[in-house]
Amino acid sequence: MRTPKLLVVLCLIVLNLFLSCSSDEEVAPNNAPIVANPIEDQTLEEGFGSITISLAGVFGDEDGDALSISAESNNTGVVSVSVVEKELTITEVGIGLAGIDITAADGNGGMVTDEFEVTIEEGEEGDPVVIQVETETATLTSSWKLKTDIDGFTGDGYIVWEGEPLFWKGNPGGVAKLTYEIEIPKAGTYLFNWRSYIAKGNESTEHNDSWLRLPDADAFYGEKSNGSKVYPTGSGNTPNPAGESGNGFFKVYMNTVDSWTFTSGTSDHDFHSIYATYDEPGTYTVEIAPRSDFHAIDSFRFTEQR
After folding, report:
1. Which residue in 214, 274, 224, 266 sits closest to 245, CA to CA?
2. Quick one: which of 256, 212, 251 has its CA closest to 89?
């Protein structure tokens, strides 16, 4: 039986009206995130080492979008910063004033920045002891290379492992270990940081870590400002850090892209700054071994804690 022409025409008209209405539907605009609870300016006395600030509740988003948070210091000679799991870590570098920008992005083009200042003041006891060592002073072996390609290095260059990655191989620190001797002039606890750079790509969690062991320190541990401590696996102490560790080595990482930074920590997704305690002045050993390839290390330093 034939379909009447009038019915066909009516069906086409209805379909056209439906398509026209659908195309005219407006997409709800994206609402950018907001700063709900700004971070206050921070005034700290030299020798504090590092502090962490929770970013939970700092930002809000009306649309309920998951926010990506990043941080930047405008004076890395005073403090360096990093964000891990909604925690901001501020690491001491020197005396002075630094502006900190914390940016939240919703992935849909919306973003907002919270700005605050950090002031590091000289302590009443005078300057803390600082020991700084250029990494190229070791005898480089295997696939360790001395490079000068990235601007901003100190000394004669920086070192970078260009061999295969050495994570989850079952022998942390067991390949191409570099050894340094340092003079500790004063008994006490020291914050350890190395100045490093992601030398390949722009992913903050790739090419960003190496192994570290301080075998003759009287205590070698990671600590957060809330008092939480971790010890390297194989050291005989617990608890141990999240992620890989072993043979008394910490995996020491950072998450800063396109910038040299003194930020250094351990324990995956639970950043703990690195500390060592020396009960007596003397000559001590620092051991660095490759883990990720293309993690560039310029120098390392020990800063006395008060």
Report:
1. 266
2. 256
Domains in the chain, CATH or no CATH each? 34-121 (2.60.40.1080), 130-304 (2.60.120.260)
Q: What is the per-residue pLDDT across 102-128, written as a single tens digit (0 to 9) for each?
A: 999 999 999 999 999 999 998 777 778
HSE at residue 204, side-chain half, CA atoms within 13 A, is: 16
Please report which confidence band the pLDDT of residue 23 belongs to, taking 50, 70 and 90 as the band edges. very low
For residues 85-107, one letter each, b for 16 or more C-beta atoms within 10 angstroms of the residue's C-beta and e for the rest, the string is eebbbbbbbeeeebebebbbbbe
In the predicted model, is pLDDT for residue 234 greater than 50? yes
- What 3-state class would DSSP assign to 9? helix
* DSSP bridge partners of 11: none
Contacts of 143 (CB under 8 A, 6+ apart): 161, 162, 163, 176, 290
3-state secondary structure of 291: coil
Count how many Cα atoms sit within 13 Å of the Cα of residue 298 in the half-sphere of its side chain: 21
CA 220, CA 216: separation in Å to the nearest integer?
9
Residue found by looking up tokens 């005034």 in the block? 43
Q: Token pair for residue 140?
A: 């480089």
